[in-house]
């Protein structure tokens, strides 16, 4: 046996071991036009501009001016970080519970992530937990709508406006979710989406950045897609800036376009079913399903989950989750690895060693990612159990079955 650590997996490969009594995401349901669009790309000899078509269709569906399609949300937010052009050592406030892809692009541009704690009992942060993190180096607030639960965007926008900060949404887990009747991704100045195969609008891979800001969109295309190059007449490309080529491939766009045609109906279904499932889970003593704020008029749920009351059970949260997986909930587990200040170990390492940009300058103060700074997030995640992913294949009978499994495991372990 080798001691070499196992590398992280992605796509369908990451979900192959998930079996149980409930539906799983893979194989994914694809829109009926998937093959036709793929065929069109091939038949056109790659001239079909499927990527442009998808960008226009997605922008129209959201009601925004610009959609810049990329190979994923990680690159989409890197494109955004490049377009923002903030100085090394500037700070961005980021939700503490999220996927690594949320922060990578900004970190890569030497922007320092600052994580507020989550609101008590919530998976998301709040204006109250964000406010004390704002300094004279803060440039933006990156809000992640975890599991599809949309943040208090009115409160966050008001706070940001008082300090002149850019409001960014990471809407990867909330595609076509609605907050007070407005779509996720349109609630700040700019947003990132993922169309990775395991996501709600699952294509092959893929993502995009959306905005109504013409200048930001232009700069994003220049820095993130044209590799910082301009055309000089009678010469060719001049690379005036260190840019990237994060462009969505045509075949990915073909699948995204097909998925876009069926997504609204699927999200409406997810919203109905998850409310039913949480209603059933709520009836079980010691179990608290994720709370859907009244503001979330459509909960585009990507990942279902609940907290257990530790004093009610004789087992640990991890044991409870393992028993659920064994009893038939595919991929049931804990989500502590979503706690970024802890899981992104190089942040604490570099901050501690004052590695650039934590050196002073460009940083203006020391940084710490010590776990004690996030008591609410730790308390939440230590009692949180999630489905690997929730999916559009659920029907009411699956809610009954899932609740029966949770009840059985709860009763078996009750003190
Ligand atoms: C909240 C969030 N942000 C960003 C990402 C990264 O997206 P992608 O895999 O498309 O790069 C994910 C993917 O899991 C995510 O859930």
Helices and strands in order, then pairings?
Elements: H1 34-43, H2 50-62, E1 66-70, H3 73-84, E2 91-94, H4 101-108, E3 112-114, H5 127-130, E4 138-144, H6 153-163, E5 166-170, E6 178-179, E7 182-183, E8 190-194, E9 207-211, H7 214-224, E10 229-232, E11 236-239, H8 250-282, E12 287-289, E13 296-298, E14 305-308, H9 317-327, H10 340-343, H11 345-353, H12 375-382, E15 384-386, H13 396-413
Parallel strand pairs: 2-3, 2-4, 4-5, 5-8
Antiparallel strand pairs: 1-9, 6-7, 6-13, 8-9, 10-11, 12-14, 14-15
Helix pairs in contact: 1-8, 2-8, 3-4, 3-7, 8-13, 9-13
The structure holds pyridoxal-5'-phosphate (PLP).
Summed up:
With 415 residues, the protein is of the alpha/beta class. The protein has helices spanning 34-43, 50-62, 73-84, 101-108, 127-130, 153-163, 214-224, 250-282, 317-327, 340-343, 345-353, 375-382, 396-413; strands at 66-70, 91-94, 112-114, 138-144, 166-170, 178-179, 182-183, 190-194, 207-211, 229-232, 236-239, 287-289, 296-298, 305-308, 384-386.
């Amino acid at each position: 046996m080798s001691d070499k650590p196992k590398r992280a997996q992605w796509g369908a490969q990451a979900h192959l071991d998930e079996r149980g009594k409930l539906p799983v995401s893979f194989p994914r349901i694809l829109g009926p036009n998937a093959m036709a669009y793929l065929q069109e790309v091939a038949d056109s000899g790659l001239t079909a501009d499927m990527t442009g078509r998808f960008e226009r269709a997605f922008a129209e569906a959201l009601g925004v001016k610009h959609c810049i399609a990329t190979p994923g949300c990680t690159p989409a937010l890197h494109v955004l970080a490049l377009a923002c052009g903030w100085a090394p050592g500037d700070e961005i406030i980021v939700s503490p519970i999220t996927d690594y892809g949320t922060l990578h692009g900004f970190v890569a541009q030497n922007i320092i992530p600052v994580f507020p704690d989550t609101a008590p009992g919530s998976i998301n942060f709040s204006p109250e937990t964000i406010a004390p993190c704002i300094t004279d180096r803060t440039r933006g607030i990156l809000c992640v709508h975890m599991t599809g639960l949309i943040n208090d965007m009115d409160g966050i926008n008001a706070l940001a406006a008082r300090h002149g900060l850019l409001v960014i949404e990471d809407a990867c887990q909330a595609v076509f979710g609605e907050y007070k009747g407005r779509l996720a991704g349109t609630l700040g100045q700019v947003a990132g989406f993922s169309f990775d195969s395991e996501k709600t609008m699952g294509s092959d891979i893929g993502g995009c950045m959306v905005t109504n800001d013409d200048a930001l969109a232009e700069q994003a295309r220049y820095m993130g897609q044209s590799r910082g190059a301009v055309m000089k007449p009678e010469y060719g490309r001049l690379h005036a800036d260190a840019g990237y080529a994060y462009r969505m491939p045509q075949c990915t766009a073909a699948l995204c376009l097909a998925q876009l045609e069926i997504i609204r109906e699927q999200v409406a279904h997810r919203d109905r079913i998850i409310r039913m499932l949480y209603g059933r889970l709520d009836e079980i003593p010691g179990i608290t399903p994720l709370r859907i704020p009244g503001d979330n008029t459509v909960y585009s749920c990507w990942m279902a989950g609940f907290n257990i009351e530790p004093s009610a059970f004789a087992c640990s949260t991890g044991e409870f989750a393992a028993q659920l997986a064994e009893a038939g909930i595919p991929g049931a587990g804990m989500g502590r690895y979503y706690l970024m200040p802890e899981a992104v170990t190089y942040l604490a390492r570099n901050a501690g060693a004052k590695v650039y940009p934590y050196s002073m300058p460009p940083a203006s103060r020391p940084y710490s990612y010590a776990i004690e700074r996030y008591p609410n997030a730790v308390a939440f995640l230590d009692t949180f159990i999630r489905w690997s992913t929730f999916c559009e294949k659920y029907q009411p009978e699956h809610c009954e079955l899932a609740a029966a499994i949770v009840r059985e495991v709860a009763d078996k372990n009750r003190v």
